[in-house]
Each structure stands twice: as structure tokens, then as C-alpha cells.
Amino acid sequence: MIQKQIFNPPKSISDLFLGSYFNLDDVPKINRHPILKKIIDHINQRINHFFQHQISTLKFLIDQQKLIDSSSTRSSPIVIDIEIDSNQKIQEEQQEKVLTQESELIQLAQYQHPTQEQLNCPYCVCKKSNQTVLKSLALRCAVCKNYFHSSCLRIEKPKKVFVCPECILIGIDPLHELKESILDPVIFQSVEGRANQFTQKFQMKKGIPSEQLIELRSIKIDGQYEDISWPDLGDLQLNGKKIQEFRPLANNSCLKKRKDEKLMLNIELGQVNLLTIRESNGTPEMKAYRINQGIPYMLGIFQVKVYKLSEFIKKVKMDQSCLLGIEQSKKFIQLSILQNQFDEVTMESIKVSLDCVYDLNQIQTPARGNICEHIQCFSLENLVTMMKNVTPRKWKCPICKQMILGLQVDAYQMCILTIIKHLQAECLILQGEVENPELRELLKQQETTLPDSTRSNNNRVIQLEQISQRILKISNQVVAEPKNKYKPPPPLPEPKPIKKIGESFSDAILID
Ligand SMILES: [Zn+2]
Ligand SMILES: [Zn+2]
Ligand SMILES: [Zn+2]
Ligand SMILES: [Zn+2]
């Protein structure tokens, strides 16, 4: 491996960067050897750490490379320029535009007013534990569409896009795809503020294929949950044997947070297993460590398929459910522009670069996360290569910094990339369509080479729902039902008036 590196010197900064990691996909024997794998993972982490400290140098090198590249091959980075027609900025016209598009928008918003049953938040963590519900907002998860009490999840200020802990636990690592749930997500918490102890029986009922693993995952329900987290101090036992110890971070640690990982379990088919997680009480000497106790955790045991790098990229590219079809992509662009106008962002145009933010080379497969709301894509290949080489993996969009729980390939940008690859052209998009007639013609030809589904596929697209809800001023937060059985239920909240566009947008629909 090392020799290969020496005889094939990197041709670009990104080659240097990506080629520096040890990649064991081609060496299955080593890959399967847990001790060697651990060492290699450690080396990769060190390499990653090294690069983290070289960011300014790398940026300089990349700039230099760009200068050289541009003087030899192309004059400027390729961009898609999405023009916002200035005539459209007039209020009445906006209003009219929404009115004419309203039925379509409502359909895209996929919004149904929550029923009383939904406002009881039957899937919320409080139903799985002994938590009491405070007066609360009900938040709608963008992924599963269920409602959750903001207070039960300790969320004080909801983000623009809310995702529930269960959807995060399940989707936290797309490279380890959930195939079967052995223990459905459960909550563990004893008494608020006191050390938790949790015991759970579980059983694997079906045999597992060789490329699959059994993973134990846990996240802390602390209002900021986005990563795997285990108790600060304590241990984990499987069938009475300690398999993991949790040590807290020192107060003066330079890390913001301990880096926790999913845990692999070795269990026999059919055997009834006993899992115990204990938080320990810190002794007085442990004052210098960060120990928080009694915070609820959500935990699940899953059978996951582990993808190799190339296999995963291929899967995402082939998977119809990961595809944002051409028509949906155009809709997405139009809605983004419409939303910008309502937000009174005065912009002449949105520039979308066809270069990847990771290496500033032309994007190979244009992709974004499934809750990202930007038109800009990154290179699927670059993101996945980056992710494959770090532990613990934290899937974050390089553009909007939101979590990535699933990937989306943009078929429209893929077509544009294909046709302008060899032209040194900017591509102007007006009303979602390419403005230059020659390019538009080429694009049409390109589109006809694609399967029907790529053009007109009708996936559920979270972004289309979110943006159209925002344009229609439908909030994803409503006041939750109080937990009082004796009072008559309050009337259902009225939908916000839609047509008064000038009014300011409140975060919640109030019922009293
Ligand atoms: Zn350092
Ligand atoms: Zn709740
Ligand atoms: Zn959810
Ligand atoms: Zn993003």
C-alpha cells in the first residue's frame, strides 16, 4: 500500500488529502482483523488531526493549484447563476404568484392540521418513560412527521428543521445502514438528576449475513442530541460481563465533548441477552471531571449493513429514493427563490458553484443531505471518502452544517454538469429553466437519455415540504395538548390565515 502511494504521486491537493488516509477496503483480511483495524483507525485519526492543523496551508496550496489550473484549462469556476427577476419582487405580484401556486404548494407542503391525537404526541419520549410533561410546544419531525413535546426533549429554542431522536438514532451513520431492529429505541432514565441504572432483555431472532453487524447506539436527550453519547461515568454489561467502561472528560480537557462511538455487540442467535447500563456516582475526587447524571438516554440495538466506500457511492447513485428528479429539482429552485423574496432578501441572483467545497474541483455526483435546504451541492464522492476515514463519524453538511441522515442526488444539476463539462460556460437559470437556448437544447437532449423516473420521479422530498410550509406560513410547532383528563379538550387550533403575506410570522400557533 505504501509503495503504491510512492509510485503514484498525488496529482492534486485533494489527491494528496484523500490519498493520505489508509484505506483498507481492498485488503479484506486486514479489514476484518479487529486489532489491526483499530490501529489503522487510530493512524487515520492522527492523519485527520494533522490535516486539521494544516488548514491554512492547505487552503493556500489549493488557491495556488486553482491559479495554475485556471491559467491552463479554464478561466473561472463554473457556476449556475440563478437569476431572480427583479419585476417579481413587487409585493402584489408575489401575492398573486402564491395565490396561483397555492394549491400546488399545499400539495407540496403535505401538511395536514394535527389531530388532537397527534397533539398528544403519542410517539414522544414521555410515553416511554416516567417523565411528566410541562406546558410545551409540539414539534413536528421533518423525517417521520410525528409530533414531540419540546419540553420532553429539553429543547428550548427549536431549530429551523426539527428531527426527532429516534430518526437520528436510526439514521446517524448512512454507511451503517439499518436492516433490522433487534431492540426498538427505548428510553432509560431513573430519577431526574440521579444516577441511572437500566436493564433490558433482548434476543436476536434471525441469523445475520456476514457483512452485517449488531450495533448498540445511544443518544443523550439533552436538547442538543445529534451524536452518539454514553453516560459520562459508569459501565455497560452484557450478560453480566463488563464490555465497556465510560470515563468522564476532565474539566480542563480541550475537547468540547467526549467522542463517543456506536458499540458492536457479539451475541448468539436465539439466546436471551441481558444488557445493563450503569451510571456511577462520582467520588469527591472526581470534582475535576465533567459528570452529568440522570439525563435520559435513548438506546437501540440494530442489525446494520456495513458498506464499502465504492459500494456505498454506487448504492446512493442507483437508489431511486435518494434521487431528486429533474422536475422536483426545478420546483426546489423555484421555491427557494420564492422564499427568498418573502424573506425580503434582496438578491439579484443565487450563484451555485459546480465546484465541490471540499477540493474545489468540479463536482462528480452532485448531492446534499436530505434535510439541507440549499441549492448548492457537494461531491458525493468527496463527502463519503471524508466520512469513511474518521471515527466517530459525524455526518454534517459542509455547506449548512446540518446533520446528514440520508443523501440526495440532484438529477438536474447532474445533467447540467454533464453538458457544460467541456464548455467553459456559466449557466444562467431563470424561473428554474436554463436561459441560454443552446444550452437548454443540449440539456433537453441530455434529459431524454435518462430513464423516465429520473425526470418525473415523485419521491417525498423533505425540502419541498419545509419550504412550501414556510411560504404558506405554516409552522411546524403548535401548542401541545395539556395532560389533563378532567377539563374538556380545548378547541383545535385554527390554521393561520394564509393570504395576509405582509404579517410577521409567529413561531407557534396559539390556542388560547
Ligand atoms: Zn490538536
Ligand atoms: Zn412528551
Ligand atoms: Zn422522526
Ligand atoms: Zn446542507
From TrEMBL:
Transmembrane segments: none annotated. GO terms for molecular function: SUMO ligase activity; zinc ion binding. One of its GO terms (cellular component) is chromatin. InterPro entries: Znf_FYVE_PHD (IPR011011), Znf_MIZ (IPR004181), Znf_PHD (IPR001965), Znf_RING/FYVE/PHD (IPR013083). It holds the Pfam family zf-MIZ. Residues 481-500 are annotated as: Disordered. One of its GO terms (biological process) is protein sumoylation. The keyword Metal-binding applies. Coiled coil: none annotated. Keywords: Metal-binding, Zinc, Zinc-finger. Residues 341-426 form the SP-RING-type domain. This is SP-RING-type domain-containing protein. It comes from Paramecium tetraurelia.
